Amino acid sequence: MKFGWVCAADRDSWEDRKEIVKMALESSIPVVVVRPEDIEKVRELGNIKVASHSLDADIVLISKNDDIEFLKEAKEKGKETAIYIPIESKEDEEFASEVARFGFVDYIVIEGRDWTIIPLENLIADLFNRDVKIVASVKDLKEAKTSYEILEKGTDGVLLNPEKLEDVKELSKLIEELNKEKVKLDTAVITKVEPIGSGDRVCIDTCSLMKIGEGMLVGSYSRGLFLVHSETVENPYVDTRPFRVNAGPVHAYILCPGNKTKYLSDLKAGDKVLIVDKDGNAREAIVGRVKIEKRPLILIEAEYKGDKIRTILQNAETIRLVGEDGKPISVVELKPGDKVLIKYDEYARHFGMAIKESIIEK
Q: Which ranges of the sequence are coiled-coil (predicted)?
């Protein structure tokens, strides 16, 4: 996942620095780089990580010419650590590569001076499998986008020194766009729709609004998840709840960010789930509330390339799957032969992670 930091240390007046911090907070930027004397004032403005040359910071940041032992001390105190390295020569590039291998440096922040993207390319390739994050210091959004895309992998993050406050908000939008996931959807043919009695079902209320065609991927088997539509469709029975997906019983799997799954019963406020649309475009959403209530249930069985997959949903006209045409279909109207959107996965799951292992689900 890409991330962005914002520098609020270079402005002369506290009032100017404060405005940058406030905009970072409003834009959900996770980290601001600040002067040591501003740390406590920044924390009074809101809950945001601060990076600074101080052991009081959340991320202890030093420059190339500072004593590297300071980062060792910070790491021993349980702090995250970072070093800022302006690249002015090949020796600086080699120094950055060396520092990244020390084991007590979490981030290397690279600033380019009179150079193209070549040093960043070299460092990304060199440190590909190292447990260190590469952050590019940039002055505008164009540089930020380029840094994120270098060698396809790109830098892990950027540090933006904004020319204007609006750039902070635009950086947040860029990161959100880059972090969107794409889910491969296919169609399965319904083979059985059968009421099965009552059970505990889960409604997921999110901190985001959904639209027609969006929902969540849920299923009784990890290998076959059905796209369950959000409660965004107008109906004569109840008001719409565009923040809600009536997802299914407590045992079912739901797809979460990073291609991980969770049981519906494990979800709680503050967790993250994936909202997926009919085209497979996915975005993160924060769970605001989970409602578990006893309701009548219906078993839905479908066939995908000879494999039978199943899920269970509440037996109500307002609960819908998504047809192959992208339109929602109520479970009370669903019948054998209908085609619905699913995500099929040949891998099994162990604690929510996809693994190459034979597991029988039936």
A: 161-188
